[in-house]
Amino acid sequence: TRIEPQAASLLADFLGTDLQRVVMELDKLFILIPEGTLAISTDMVENSVGINRDFSPFTMFRHLTDGNFSGVQPIVQYFSDNEKKYPLVMIISLLYTHLSRILKYHTLRMENPSLTEDAVGKLMGSNYYFFKETLRASRFFTFSRTVRAMELLCIYDSLYKSSDRGEATDGELLMEMVCKMMA
User: Fold this and answer.
1) DSSP-derived secondary structure for 16-76
2) What are the start and end residues of each CATH 1.20.272.10 domain in the chain?
3) What distance in Å separates the CA atoms of residue 63 and residue 94, rounded to the nearest whole number?
4) 89 vs 156: CA distance, rounded Å
5) pLDDT tens digit string along 61-102?
6) Which CATH class is domain 52-182?
7) How many Å apart are CA 65 and CA 10, to the nearest integer?
8) C-alpha angle with apex 16: 70 to 170, nearest 5 degrees?
9) Collapsing DSSP states into helix, strand and coil, what is residue 2?
C-alpha cells in the first residue's frame, strides 16, 4: 500500500513530530483502511485521524494565499478555540514551510525568467500537486509580500516564545499576524 503525496503531507503537518502520536494514528489508519487498498488518499487520512477539512491548516493556507480573509477568519477562530490541537508554534511552522515554497518559486523565476513553469517545478523538486498549489499561491503572495510574511513569522514566533506578548492569547497573535500578512 502506498500513500498519496497530499495524504502524506496532511499526516505530517497535522501530526507534527510527536512520534508516539504518529505511530498511534498510523496504526489506526492501517486498521481502518479496507483490505486490498492500493493507495491511501487524503479522504482516508481525514476520516481516520479526525481532521476537519473545513478547518485544517491547508484550508487556511489556501484562503490566505488567495487573499480571502472571510475564509481565513473562521479557521483562525477555530484554531484559537482549539489551541491544544492547533498550537501557534505548529501553525507558524506549517506557514513557514508553505511560504518557503512560494519564496523558492519566486527566486527561481527571477533567476531564470526564461524557464517554463514545468522546468521551475522540476528545479524546485516538488511533486505536481504542491507545485500547482505554489503556483496558485504565488499570484497573491508576490515576492515582496512573501518576504514580508516571512518577517512576520519571525516576529510572531519570537512573541510566542517571550513575555513581550503581554496578555495576548495565541489565537489573538495568530489573527493579528494573518491580518498583517494579508494587508
Assistant:
1) TT-HHHHHHHHHHHHHHSPTT--EE-HHHHHHHHT--GGGSHHHHHHHHHTT-HHHHHHHH
2) 52-182
3) 14
4) 9
5) 989 999 999 999 999 999 999 888 888 998 999 899 899 999
6) mainly alpha
7) 18
8) 45
9) strand
Q: What share of the chain is helix, strand, coil (3-state, %, to 5)?
A: 75, 0, 25
pTM assigned to the model = 0.78
Dig out the grid coordinates for 58 from the structure: 491547508
CA-to-CA distance for 10 and 57, rounded, in angstroms? 9
- 140: DSSP letter: T
**List of residues 6+ apart from 115 with CB closer than 8 A:** 108, 109, 123
Task: Please say if the pLDDT value at position 54 is more than 80.
Answer: no
Which residues, at least 6 apart from 90, have a Cβ–Cβ distance to it below 8 Å? Answer: 16, 57
The answer to whether the CB of 59 falls within 8 A of the CB of 36 is no
For the stretch 109-148, pLDDT in tens is 999 999 999 899 999 987 777 898 899 999 999 999 999 9
Closest CA to 98 of 131, 54, 69, 53: 131
Question: What is each CA distance from 64 to 11, 14, 149, 154, in whole angstroms?
Answer: 21, 18, 11, 18
Alpha-carbon torsion (31, 35, 40, 41), positive or negative: negative
Residue 100: which residues within 8 A CB-CB, separation 6 or more? 150
